[in-house]
Amino acid sequence: MGNSVGQRAFHKARLEKRQKAEILPMLGHALQLHKMGLLPEAQTAYRQLLQLAPNQFIALHMLGILESDAKNYQQAEILLSRAVAVDPRSADAHMSLGVALNGLRRHDAACASYRKALALRPNHAVTFSNLGNASVALELHEEALHSYDKALALNPDLAEAHNGRGWALCRRRNYDEAIASLNRALSIKPDYAAALANRAIALRELQRFDEALADANRAIALAPDDANGWLARAGVLLQIQQIAQASHDCEQALAIDPSSIQAHMIQGLCLAGLGRVDEALASFDRALDIQPDLQSAISNKIFTLDFAEDATVERHQQARQVWWERVGSKIASESSAPHDNSREPDRRLVLGYVSSDFNAHSAAFIFKPVLEHHDRTQFEIVCYACSSKMDATTSEFKKIADRWRDASQWTDDRLAAEIRADGVDILIDLSGHTRGNRLGVFARKPAPIQVHGWGHGTGTGLPTIDYLFSDPVAIPSAVRHLFAETIVDLPCFVTLAPLPDGIARTPAPAMSNGFVTFGVFNRISKISDEAVDVWSRILERVPGSRLLIKDVALDDQLVRGNLLARFAACRLPAERVDLLGATLRSEHLASFNRVDICLDPFPQNGGVSTWEALQMGVPVVAKLGSSLPSRAAGAILTALGLPDWVADSEEAYVEIAATRAAGIADLDRLRRDLPGRINASAAGNAFSYARGADAAYRAMWKRYCDRGA
């Protein structure tokens, strides 16, 4: 037996010697091809070598790197896992495996590989930088910044670490600091496309759109095969309402990287903005297939469901429950803490308002009169501004607030801590699931009572938010059990600030024109195919009538063409439709003087646009649906004593519009009557409405005090 063992050892040694003689030249040849940049040839050479010697470490490592560079991360992970099994002491192999795992979005595993590499080689700047990248992907921003700082302490000129640090700061909303880091990266590598794309995003968040667009354009020119440049530009274009071009850029990005979460997200927003609701929802679902707990994708889906034809109250609230289960509940479990606010039922209370819309945004026109007319002997007002967009309206809010907090570059943790430190008794969310929301803060419950209302106003799905302001028409009693919040009724779920001084109202234009003009002053995304069909039928019923549509998106020629084509498909020729784009608000309001009757869209109704029309004396036809977004205009009209302008079917909608259009003198009388009617109503009089909110807040507080007694 001993002789047999000896013979096998002898033959094995001879085989290894022969293989070594063959393999070393093959390896040298493969490495030379790799060095010369002949990558397909190098890959072939490495594979041929591995057929002879499957555990040849250098070939496994180098081929794994090539596959990773080609974004073939699955194959790279297989090869590099074999490499670290052959040589577990190789720091380089562990780092390369981390890169492949990060590409596969297995970020926890990538972090583990980077840490193994650092255990073997503690002072390696690139590995620290890569660990930072994986930590950012896990939203561990503090850990990421620590890793980048370690990398830069070792190598201050590592552009990749400056870029990563800039992106981490951007994710933390520290946009000014982010730009400083990205500027440093670009001073080291002026043609660094990734840093340009990241800086474009930071500049966009600071409303510096021209600079952002320039950076994104340069990133695309430098790296047209990198999806990030296209996505950076798409984000800017979307925000400046060049929606069709933004959608095109998303298509370019998806052609490069079909699994890009951000591309599916931005494309979804573009499609929603173009009124292609089902396609938008499908885009958000594709993003959620890749990352099920992506907060922004869930919120965007929730918001877009407001526009869906078949979305019931149940479906709306189920979508909000998904946000809580996948996102909010995890935050709440980590951050719950008791409140030490004094439970005195009649003391002056601190109200904290959280919004990204303390600026010239339509939502601000809804909640501004509430803040303006609070009883200041009973309430102190703290505003937490979560957007870097500042304008004249912002200055007005600053004057209203007792304390103003610029939270635009604060993390959720910091904002929650500041709210506690400010002693806020009742914290009000004014954003819901709209862009720039801070629902993560409300999941942390930094105030003893939390309320949602006015901005969006359709419910959040957060059990940590106690109350939702609404009214009996917007949310009927039969569906209130579906909401996470307790519903508190106001005279109307929304109001609107009085019109600015100097806005003239005119008689009904049909009195002088001799024909009726219908108007639509809503976002294009609200104009459903069903609404287009119904409006076309109305114009068919009313001879000589015209339709005026106004929205900022109509500055885009592609959007204009698409909208007119939709009407043409319903037999309404383009010459009967007038389209208006963006204007100053004074000009926007004056445009109502060209309209006799406004037609409210469905399934998502108007809110601000409905109120503006009525304030200008223009009556509105609305269709009452089943979900809150489809009941908004009906709620407003009912609150003003105009329920006969509210239809419960498409046929009734057509009938109301056509019948009212036949009575031009009656339209003119109502036009003169409406402003006074609004001012005399609890829903439209800003002072009365705010006093209703005051009473609701005090009742909430007394219930809270009673529970603690």
Layout of helices and strands:
Layout lengths: L1 H34 L3 H14 L4 H13 L3 H14 L4 H13 L3 H14 L4 H13 L3 H14 L4 H13 L3 H14 L4 H13 L3 H14 L4 H13 L3 H14 L4 H13 L3 H14 L4 H11 L7 H23 L13 E7 L6 H11 L6 E7 L6 H9 L2 E4 L5 H10 L4 E4 L9 H5 L5 E4 L14 E4 L15 E4 L20 H4 L3 E4 L8 H13 L4 E5 L6 H13 L7 E4 L4 H6 L6 E3 L8 H8 L4 E4 L8 H8 L6 E2 L2 H12 L2 H16 L6 H23 L1
Parallel strand pairs: 1-2, 1-4, 2-3, 4-5, 5-6, 6-7, 8-9, 8-11, 9-10, 11-12, 12-13
Quickly describe the structure.
It comes from Bradyrhizobium daqingense. The chain has 709 residues and is α/β, with parallel strands linked by helices.
Overview of this structure, please?
It is a single chain. The chain has 709 residues and is α/β, with parallel strands linked by helices. It has 4 domains: 30-239 and 255-260, Serine Threonine Protein Phosphatase 5, Tetratricopeptide repeat (Alpha Horseshoe); 241-254 and 261-324, Serine Threonine Protein Phosphatase 5, Tetratricopeptide repeat, CATH 1.25.40.10; 336-495 and 690-708, Rossmann fold (3-Layer(aba) Sandwich); 510-682, Rossmann fold. Helices cover 58% and strands 8% of the residues. It has 31 helices and 13 strands. The strands form 2 sheets. It has a 7-stranded parallel beta sheet, with helices on one face. It has a 6-stranded parallel beta sheet with strand order 10-9-8-11-12-13, sandwiched between helices. The longest helix has 34 residues, at 2-35.
